[in-house]
Amino acid sequence: SWLQGKRRSASTRWAMASSVHQTSMEDVGAKPTRWLRAAVWLCVVLVALGGVNPCTGARTFERRHAATQQDPASWHEAHRLERWTERFRSSSSLLDSSTTMASLSVNETTVAWSGDFVRVRLPQDDLKLVVVDDEERSSSRGLTYLCLFQGLEFLNHEAWPTTPIKWKLLETKDFERGHVDARMLNMGTIPLHFALMVHDDHADTVRFVALSDGIEFEYPDYPVGVHLAVGREATTLVAQWTTFDAINASRPYEPVVEVTDLETGSKFVFGGDEVARTVTYGREDLCGAPANSAGWVEPGYQHSVEMRRTGAALRGSALVPGRRYAYRVGDFKRGMRGDEAMVFWAPVDPSALGGDDDDDKVYTILAFADMGEYPDDGFDDQGKEIETEPSVRVARMVAEEAEWAARDGQVLAVHNGDISYARGYGAIWHSFFAQIEPLASRVPYMTTIGNHERDWPNSGDRYGGQDSGGECGVPYMSRLAMPRQQGPDKPWYSFRWGPVHFVQLSTEHPFERGTEQHEWAMGALEAVNRTETPWLVAGFHRPMYIDSTYCDASNASDCKVADDLRFAFRYLFYQYRVDMTWVGHHHSYQRTCAVDLAKGCDDKSGLGLVNLVVGNAGAVLTANLEPEMPSWFQVAKLVHGYTKFEVTRKRISLKSIDVDGNVIDEWSKSSP
After folding, report:
1. Which end of the chain lies in a sparser environment, N or C, as judged by fewer CB atoms within 10 Å?
2. Beta-bridge partner residues of 276
3. Cα separation of 7 and 272, whole Å?
4. What share of the chain has pLDDT > 90, as a percent?
């Protein structure tokens, strides 16, 4: 089946210690030579003119990503790395096994906790390495990288090519220092190995010259990637996490959530067949390469438990709406995880709101899209096409914003598409959930599917592109337990949170009038109770209104998709008085006026539709705005950041904040 599910019941208690030790790391810099910088900029000019990139032999991945905003020096480094990764991830590179490998020393071969650092001691012997000098950068015969792999499959000619989990371009000062520190994330039971690799530019070969012993994790059952979501009922939450140790008939896993009421001190447990689920997926469930080949790593098991009242699942009492709880997740026999940061507010019941006190109660929502992840230890795991390094800063800012706002009340996070940018490289999913966990383990984290999670030829998506790298939505559906009720590969859903009703759609599936999704959307909008939830937001990934020059006739161009979305939903949204759309896809921040049916601005009646593009959470900015902003747009900015909403029953307001903490836009609306 598309996703194999296993349900388990709770058992006796057993606890595992849970503390995450973190140590410091050292970063390195780079200075390009003048002639190489000139060559790189020549490549930039030629690529901007379109067609084949003479520096990489590859066509630009997507027209709307052809122009980017980056510092020239950092772009140079990304380009050199991308040149290697493109070849390394293609069948053109040859594996040269003529060299006898030396031993690469690490200070730990058993890591206690996901997130701990390992020190890799670099060999001082002459291994005929090509090293980048700090002052005068060499390019005569290639470059040397320190790579991290899962297993030893990368040494097998028949398995070539394969891909490292992450890599670091080594410099002279790395060898002078004698070591590199690397953060280790739990990604399965298969040992991880560091390898020194030389990529020969001239011969287009890779040569491994040193290899470390395997590194394993002491607690493969320790829950990682913990995150929350709103459940199928407005007053419930779902907790989800990943473990890696084997699950079978002799070693079942019985997922539970133990909560502690911080007001009364009472504890109770959620678990059992009605609310608990365990899923995973294999190579055979994925649609193509690299997801089922060079990019494959162990996905682990994704466990989820909905904290709601059922006869068989409840021990003690249900969550009290509006009360604060600490919680632990795991299996009582195989290990539990809980720490002081794992605290949440139980959602309020929208049907119980409406008094004078409720009218002034403030709810905080943090909205963003197109985030991705990036290693924070000086390594890399992405190339220049996406370049998600700003996501580290944005994720930290959003987590800090949520922590501060949660001291006084309810907080929600909404991430509408292009979640991790794994694009078939499974290790990036693990890295993303490590990066987003400080936010998503404290507040409900709600998502929609994007092109980089779903699109793949002949797999049922609307476009037939290859943006998911062969994932075709399988990891997304397994790893993010949204309150979907329509069946496999039908990721649309709705939920209520405080005074807001959200209808979350998929622009990656057919959405035209008469399609299953469109029929569902009509029913979902008709069912909204505006007395209980006075605000109505439609969320999806691709924009319905967009400032973009990507306007060719292809079915995936920004302008064509926006036209199709307006034809499918504009009258429907106006009929049911949808207040806003929250989208991403275009890596920018944009806001329209309140657009009326004639595509004019109607900011006075309160009936127009305000459209928000929040695709600026980390991926490289899309520098293809129109020379003159379209008339219905009031803001369009190319800057990374996130958007914060403060919502009461009477008023909704936003502040969009960039990575430097500057407010780049403000807007508000009062209920009619």
Report:
1. N
2. 305
3. 7
4. 67
Instruction: Give the CA radius of gyration of the chain.
Output: 25
The 3-state DSSP class for residue 453 equals helix
**Which of left, alpha, beta for 489 (phi over 0: left; psi -120 to 50: alpha)?**
left
Omega of the bond prior to 290 within 30 degrees of 0, cis? yes
Using CB atoms within 10 Å of the CB of residue 66, give its burial: 0 to 12 exposed, 13 to 18 middle, 19+ buried: middle
How many angstroms separate the CA atoms of 223 and 435, rounded? Answer: 15
State pLDDT tens for residues 401-445: 999 999 989 999 999 999 999 999 999 999 999 999 999 999 999
Q: What pLDDT score was predicted for residue 144? A: 87
Amino acid at 570: R
Euclidean distance between the first and the last CA atom of the chain, given in angstroms as a whole number = 48
pTM: 0.86
Other beta carbons within 10 angstroms of residue 443's beta carbon come to 26
> Cβ of 466: how many Cβ atoms within 10 Å?
17
Instruction: Name the one residue in this structure whose structure tokens are 């294999």.
Output: 282
Is residue 29 predicted with pLDDT exceeding 80? no
Cβ 241 vs Cβ 329: under 8 Å: yes
pLDDT band at 60 (very low <50, low <70, confident <90, very high): very low
Spatial CB neighbours of 557, under 8 Å, sequence gap ≥ 6: 63, 550, 551
**Exposed, middle or buried: residue 111 (CB in 10 Å: 0-12, 13-18, 19+)?**
buried
Do 182 and 117 contact (CB within 8 A), yes or no?
yes
pLDDT of residue 152: 87
* 3-class SS of residue 440: helix
Strands (E), 107-191: 110-111, 117-121, 143-150, 166-169, 179-183
Which pLDDT score is estimated for 172?
A: 86
